[in-house]
Request: fold
Amino acid sequence: QQVVSEDLHKNGLELETVSLTGLDQTGFKYFNENQALQEKMEFLFKLLFYKKYFIKNSIF
Reply:
């Protein structure tokens, strides 16, 4: 939302909400281990993995 808000504001527009409509997973071999984003992507990967695991095994 913050990324596009400035451009929209220049045109007299305002962004009220943002929603994620798709998420593609990129293989970890393409990420640089020295980047701060790497740790966050690993956390997100684990979160998605466990979500699928719990749904598949009906564990709540």
The chain has a mean pLDDT of 76. Residues 30 and 38 are 10 Å apart (CA to CA). The chain has two helices and no strands.
